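Please decode residue identities from the backbone states below.
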């Protein structure tokens, strides 16, 4: 077990259970290893905490909790990056932004594909889509 100091206090983690982003996050290519933080409140949101930069953490969610018709799937190259086959399970997640005015948005234009078997994830930019990086939550 290893420890880091974060905004959540001291966090102990098992390095073999880290969530690995081989290419980092978009705009943050050096952030490649994350701890999935246990959710203290019930609900659809959870945190991932960077191991490389402990001051960096992100809120994620499954976008279908809010947008039932949101459907994106990884292509062959993305599945190769995730080290999964065509028929293997892959979850779609989105980054949640909670600004000071509390008008929460989801980044539907750049989803994260997560493969639970390999514990790998990639963030992609959807080309030619109508999705926004600041999609407000439905009322």
């Amino acid at each position: 077990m290893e420890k880091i100091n974060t905004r959540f206090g001291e966090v102990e983690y098992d390095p073999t259970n880290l969530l690995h982003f081989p290419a980092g996050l978009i705009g943050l290519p050096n952030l490649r290893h994350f701890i999935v933080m246990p959710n203290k409140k019930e609900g659809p949101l959870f945190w991932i905490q960077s191991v490389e930069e402990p001051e960096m953490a992100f809120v994620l969610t499954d976008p279908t909790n809010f947008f039932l018709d949101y459907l994106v799937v990884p292509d062959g190259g993305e599945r190769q990056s995730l080290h999964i086959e065509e028929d293997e399970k892959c979850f779609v997640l989105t980054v949640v932004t909670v600004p000071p005015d509390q008008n929460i948005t989801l980044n539907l234009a750049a989803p994260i594909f997560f493969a639970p078997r390999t514990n790998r994830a990639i963030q992609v930019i959807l080309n030619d889509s109508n999705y926004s990086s600041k999609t407000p939550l439905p009322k």
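Observation: The first strand starts at residue 2 and ends at 6.
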